[in-house]
Amino acid sequence: MASSEDTPFDQYRADVDRPLLRLFREYGIPRLRWFTAGNVANLVGRSASLLPPLVLGTAIDAIFTGDGSYSLPLVPAAWLPTEQAAQFWFSVALIVVGFAVTGIGTFLWGVTMNRFAHGVMHEVRTDTFAAMQALDMAFFDDKQTGEVMSVLNNDASNLETFLDDALSEGLRIVVMVLGIAGILIYLNAQLAAVTLLLVPAMGLFTWWFMRRVEPLYKRVRSDVGNLNTRLENALSGVELVKTTGTEEYETGRVREASNDLYESNMAVLTLSYFYRPGMELLAGLSFAATFLVGGLWLFQGPPFGLSGTLTVGEFVIFVFLTQRFVEPLSQASNLVDWYENAKASGERVFGLMDVPPHVVEADDAVPLSDVDGAVEYDGVSFGYDDELVLQDIDFEVDPGETVGLVGPTGAGKSTVVKLLLRLYDVNAGQVSIDDRDVREVTVASLRSAIGYVSQDPFLFDGTIAENIRYGRFDASDEAVREAAKAAEAHEFVANLPDGYDTRVGERGVKLSGGQRQRLAIARVVLQDPAILVLDEATSSVDTETEVLIQRSMDAVSADRTTFVIAHRLSTVKDADTILVLEDGSVVERGSHDELLDEDGVYATLWRVQAGEIEALPDRFLESV
Q1: pLDDT, tens digit, for every residue of 213-272?
Q2: Which of 146, 215, 323, 558 is the 20 to 30 Å CA partner of 97?
Q3: CA distance 571 to 592
Q4: Axis crossing angle, helix 84-134 with helix 51-59, rounded to the nearest 10
C-alpha cells in the first residue's frame, strides 16, 4: 500500500496488477506472429540440438560395440538402414543435420524475437511518452524529470530484455528439461530418476530466491530514478552550481544517490551470487550422481538396488544430455533476474501510463474557431490539492483590450492565465472565450488561439528558424523572417555567422536571455493568435533589451486581447485595465491613473518602484 507521502505516480504504480501479463496482453498479442515464429524456431532449434548426442550413443551401441540395435525414438525402424556402414554414414548425416537445424533455428529465433521485443519496446516507450504528454501541469509540478526519463528509457529497456531474452530463455529451459527428461526416461527410467532427483530442490530454491529478491529489485529501480533525477538537476543547473561554487556539494549529493544505487545493487547481487552457485551446485550434484551410478552400473552391474542393463551408448547419452540438462538449470538465475527486474520496471511504466489527466477533453468538445477574443472569468476558484490559490475571480475583457495583472509574488497572477490555457482546470466557476467555456472546446484549438510567452522561454536544441517555426512547422522562410522582424529579432539573427540556421544549443544556451525572449515572441507572431499572454516577459533583461522587447510586444499585441503579467509596473501602465491580485483575490481594478487615485495596493507598489518610498509595508512582505 502506498504511504501518505507518496506522489500520485507512486500510488498508481502500487496499484498495477501483474504488469508483465498486462505487457504481453496489450503489446505482445498484436505482434503474436513474430512471437510465435520466434518461439517455433527456438523450439525446433533447441530440439534439434538434442539429436547429436542421441545419435552418437545409438551409433556406439549398434556400430562400434554391437551391444544394441540401431533405433531412434519416434523413428520407424523401416526408415533406418540395416548395414553398419550405412548406419555410420546415416549417423554422420543426422549429426550434421542436427547442428545445421540448430544454427538455422537460432538465427530465425534471434531475428523474429528481436523484431517482436524491440517492436514492443518502441510502442511502450512512445505510448508512455504520449500518456505523459497528456498529463496536466500538476503532474510535472510534482515529478522529477530524471525519474520520468528513467521510466521512458531504462524501464522500457528492461521490458525489452525480458521479452527478448527471458521468454526465449524460459522456453529453452522448458524444452531442454522436458526434452532431455523424456529421452532419459525412455532410455533408462531408473537412471533418469537419479538424474532428476534434485530438480524439486532446485524449484524450491528458485521460489525462495524470487520471494527474497523481488523487493530488492523495486528498490534498485527507484534508486535508478533518484540518481537520474539528481544528475539531471545538477546538469540543468550547472550555471548556478558554478557561480555559487557548490561543485563539491552537488558532487556529494550525486555520490549519495549513487551510493544508494550501489547498496541496492549489491543487495541484489549478493543474493544472486548465493543463488547462482547454489543452483550450479545442485545441478552439478545431479550430474555427479548420474556419472557415479551409471559408471558403477557399467563396472559391476546395477548398484543400490537398481535392476536391468545399461549399455555404453546409453551411458554416453546420459553423460552428454545431463550436461545439457545442468546448464539451463544453472542459468535459471538469469531468468529470475530478468523477470524480477522487468516486473519492477513494468510497475513503473504502467504506473505512469495509469496516472489519469485531470484536464480532459469533453466527448462533445467542438473546435474554437473565429475567435474575437472576449474573455470572462466568472467566480473562478482554484487550488493545488487542498490549498486555494485563487478564489472568486471575476472580470471581463473585451476583444482587443489589454489587461495587466500585478501583485506581490505568489498572488496567483500566472495561475490566472494558465487556467485560460487549461494547463489546469478550475475547481469552481468558469473561464470563457467568446461566451464558450474553455472546457467545452477542443484543447488543441483553444491553445492555438492563445499565444503564450513566459518569463523563461524554452528553446529546443536546433536552429533559430526551427525554434521560431515550432508549432507552425509548414511556415515559409519568408514568414519566419517577417515574424522575427516584428519581434525585433531579425537584426541580431542576421548578424550571426549562420543566420537563421544558427544552432541555439540545449535550451538556447548559446543566446542571451533577451535574444531568447525575442525569439519566443517571434514564435508567437508566427502563430498569429487571437489572444496573447505575456508572463513576466521583460523581468530578467537589461533596460535596452526591455525597450526592444516592449516595442515588439506593443506591435504584437495591437488588435489582440492581451494579458500582461508584470512586476515592473511600467510595463502595464498603459493597459486598458489593471487587475491587482493579493492572496489569490482581485483586490483592485482600473486604469493606471484610477488605481493611483485609489491610493491602495497598486499605488504602494508604484511608489516603491518609483523610489518614492524605500520598502514594501510588512503585509506585502508577508504575502511574498
Answers
A1: 878 877 887 788 788 778 777 776 776 776 667 778 888 888 898 899 899 889 888 888
A2: 323
A3: 11
A4: 170
Q: Are 286 and 198 in contact (CB under 8 A)?
A: yes
* Residues 302, 150: Cα–Cα separation, whole Å: 60
Number of neighbours of residue 64 by Cβ within 10 angstroms: 12
Which H or E run contains 238? Answer: helix 238-243
Please give the full DSSP string across 353-414, using - where no structure is assigned.
HHPPPSS---TT-B---S----EEEEEEEEEETTEEEEEEEEEEE-TT-EEEEE-STTSSHH
Q: What are phi and psi of 581, to 5 degrees?
A: -105, 145
Residue 490: CB atoms within 10 A of its CB come to 19
Tell me the Ramachandran region of residue 410: left when phi exceeds 0, alpha when psi lies from -120 to 50, beta otherwise. Answer: left
pLDDT digits (tens, 9 = 90+) for 322-375: 877 766 766 666 777 788 788 888 888 888 888 787 788 888 889 988 888 899
Distance, CA of 442 to CA of 529 (rounded, Å): 16
Range 105-119 average pLDDT: 88
Question: pTM for the complete prediction?
Answer: 0.69
Compute the C-alpha angle 414/417/423, nearest 5°.
95
Question: What is the set of domains in the chain, with CATH numbers?
Answer: 8-354 (1.20.1560.10), 365-442+563-612 (3.40.50.300)
Instruction: Say if residue 559 is exposed, middle or buried (CB neighbours under 10 Å; 0-12, 13-18, 19+).
Output: exposed
- The alpha-carbon radius of gyration of the chain (Å, integer) is 36
Cell of 139: 503532474
Average pLDDT over residues 151-173: 79
User: CA-to-CA distance for 20 and 410, rounded, in angstroms?
Assistant: 45
Q: How many CB atoms lie within 10 A of CB 331?
A: 16
Distance (Å, rounded) from C-alpha 406 to C-alpha 564?
9
What are the Cα distances from residue 361, in Å, to 132, 137, 432, 456, 491? 16, 15, 15, 28, 42
In which residue are the cell numbers 496516472 written?
Answer: 355
Task: Tell me the HSE value of 185 on the side-chain side, using a 13 A CA sphere.
Answer: 9
Give the CA distances from residue 245 to residues 239, 240, 250, 489, in Å, rounded to whole numbers and listed in that order.
10, 8, 10, 34
The C-alpha atoms of residue 39 and residue 172 are separated, in whole angstroms, by 9
Q: Which long-range contacts (CB under 8 A, 24 or more apart) does 82-91 make?
A: 87/59, 87/62, 87/63, 88/59, 88/63, 91/55, 91/56, 91/58, 91/59, 91/63
Higher pLDDT, 430 or 614: 430
Q: Three-class SS of residue 565?
A: strand
